[in-house]
Amino acid sequence: MTQLSDIKIWDSCLNGDRKAFAELYRRYYPLLYNYGCKFCANKELVKDCIQNFFAKLIQNYHKLSATQSVKGYLLLAFRNRLYDDLKYENSRSDMFLPCIDDLLSFDKSLIPYPPEDESSDDFIIMRLAFLELSPRQQEILYLYYMLGASHSDIADILNINYQSSKNLLCRSLLKLKELFFIKLKDYKGQADCKEEELDVFSHLAENFKWFHVELAK
User: Fold this and answer.
1) Which domain holds residue 130?
2) What are the tens digits of pLDDT across the range 153-209?
3) Are 85 and 11 members of one domain?
4) CATH code at 72?
5) What b-and-e string marks burial along 154-185, b requiring 16 or more CB atoms within 10 Å of the CB?
6) Measuring CA to CA, how many Å separate 58 from each of 24, 51, 179?
7) Total count of domains within the chain
8) pTM for the full predicted model
9) Taking Cα atoms as reference points, which of 12, 17, 47 lies closest to residue 33?
10) Above 80 in pLDDT, residue 17?
């Protein structure tokens, strides 16, 4: 049986189809959970945020509109919802409320180590390099490579234009490459990088296998 496209599912959601919303939830829960866990250490808060987010979508289905990118729409809307929840949590303990870019920035303490079976020196070095990127650079690499978001989606999510998204991704990748080879020299004590190590970087950057978070049950 052919699986319905996201657009077909979304069209059914626009008519209030509960089964369509359930399918959308099934498809996107892991992706949204992993994305949310890059900003917030409280996994229960992230889970609750996703559930409340979908409950709100169902409740207000008549206010939803057609979209060419369901993934982009959900990522942007969920990011905004998570910001509201984090802002509320922050307001309970602090007088100062950070702006969205400060509150929704990748928490470096939440960047996981590679799984034990993939914890080679190269993966460790890549993680060290990634940690030195700015939160915005980390997020665009994650959105593009791990979540498969398009530049149009990223532009909406990060509130920048299409060309700025392409430029930011290019600069972020170049910076990651620069940091990778600096860390490589420090870690391995090598003065020069060999050709095969250039291939190692390309493989790691394309796959980001080390950037793993256990999916929510």
Assistant:
1) 114-209
2) 999 999 999 999 999 999 999 998 899 888 888 877 655 556 556 566 666 666 565
3) yes
4) 1.10.1740.10
5) bbbbbebeeeebeebbeebbebbeebbbebbe
6) 11, 11, 45
7) 2
8) 0.82
9) 47
10) yes
